Amino acid sequence: MEVSVKDNSGVTRSKKIVATIEARMTSTRLPGKVLKPIMGYPVLELLIERLQRSEYLDEIIVATTTNDTDEPIIALCDKLNIKYFRGSEEDVLIRVLDAAKSVSADIIVEITGDCPFVDPNIVDEYIQVFLNGDYDYVSNTIDRSYPIGFDVQVFPVSILEEVNTLTSDPVDHEHVSIYIYEHPERYRLKNMESDEEVYWPDLAVTLDTQEDYELIGRIFEELYPHNPEFSASDVVKLLRDKPELVLINKQIKRKNPHGNQV
Predict the structure, then answer these.
(1) Which residues share a beta bridge with 153?
(2) pLDDT tens profile 157-180
(3) Which of 16, 60, 107, 137 has the fewest CB atoms nearer than 10 Å to its CB?
């Protein structure tokens, strides 16, 4: 749904909102994770299905690499009629920026392919906050209250273009938006807090390890057959009702963008 907003000159222009999904087959802890099957569907397909329920996204584009190993991702995009862009494996910032520009995006909704539970209702809420507020960046990752795996980040293409000119630090280029939220003196940031029923910052439902894969599969098997449009709160409720599931990946140590385990 393209939206009309006034630019700095007061002229009303249409803004194209695009979700970029970072996806590659060469993850170190769980190679090929984005195409691992759950209920017969690749993880990436289940994520795309969820994002397609957004009322605000005009387009979804998968930002993958030029590696031959990522040909299966391209094949899936072709099958699903989803656009893709192929760029650098290491410079993810440039890859995402060029992917967004390839479809003439104005606003990026940054998603990673290892977060198959991203809730389209959260996506739309954050887009609304971004459009109605005076912000450069809206997300739920600055001060975490949501479980890891519901991460959504919204910012303009123009801001990412600027960041690309300001930093050549490999950390900034590997973690697309880190420079934005680590410079609050420069950018207007909005951190979104979860409501009480979803608050669980120590929970991880992201796909990094074999244990994560087992947990995510169990969650989909519990929820998807009864309601394919299940929400973030449905996931959290299930895990509160069945705490034995949380034990599947509870021992996994997560790394922050600077390489430290958290």
Answers:
(1) 110, 139
(2) 999 999 999 999 999 999 999 999
(3) 16
CATH number of 3-201: 3.90.550.10
Beta bridge partners of 42: 37
Name the phi and psi angles at 59, rounded to 5.
Answer: -160, 155
Nearest Cα residue to 29 out of 212, 228, 169, 223 = 212
* Residue range 15-70, pLDDT digits in tens: 999 999 999 999 989 999 999 999 999 999 999 999 999 999 999 999 999 999 99
Q: Are 57 and 17 in contact (CB under 8 A)?
A: yes
Place of tokens 């999904």: 21
- Who's near 223: CB < 8 A, 6+ residues apart? 230, 234, 235, 238
Name, in order, each residue with C-beta under 8 angstroms of 201's C-beta and a sequence gap of 6 or more: 144, 145, 146, 147, 148
In Å, what is the CA distance from 198 to each residue of 22, 24, 49, 94, 140?
25, 29, 22, 33, 12
> Which residue is associated with the tokens 């207007």?
188
